[in-house]
Specification:
three-stranded antiparallel beta sheet
Length: 96
């Protein structure tokens, strides 16, 4: 019976380590609501939702019907707009 407890303890230790790893990963992903993303990007909430519906802005997932937007995706989208704003020959992407 001792080996059973040892196996269970080892399993629980491994499970706790996995949970800690997942918690660290989740903390690193900066998810925002559409309202948070709009405030961050200095645009209207509907502009963000329109970009999500059009597939121009990727979402990390949904809580019910509400999208959760990864801040990295929003920043990457802003970086593309900034880079293209310096090149007049390339059409500027927009959230509108």
């Amino acid at each position: 019976m001792t080996s059973c407890w040892g196996t269970l303890a080892a399993y629980l230790d491994a499970l706790e380590a996995r949970v800690r790893t997942l918690e660290r990963r989740l903390a690193a992903v900066r998810l925002m609501t559409a309202a948070d993303a709009a405030a961050y990007a200095l645009v209207d909430v509907e502009t963000i939702l329109r970009a999500v519906r059009a597939g121009e802005l990727s979402v990390a997932g949904y809580v019910g019907r509400s999208p959760r937007i990864c801040r990295d995706a929003l920043e990457a989208r802003d970086q593309v707009a900034i880079q293209h704003s310096h090149d007049s020959s390339v059409p500027k992407p927009s959230f509108s």
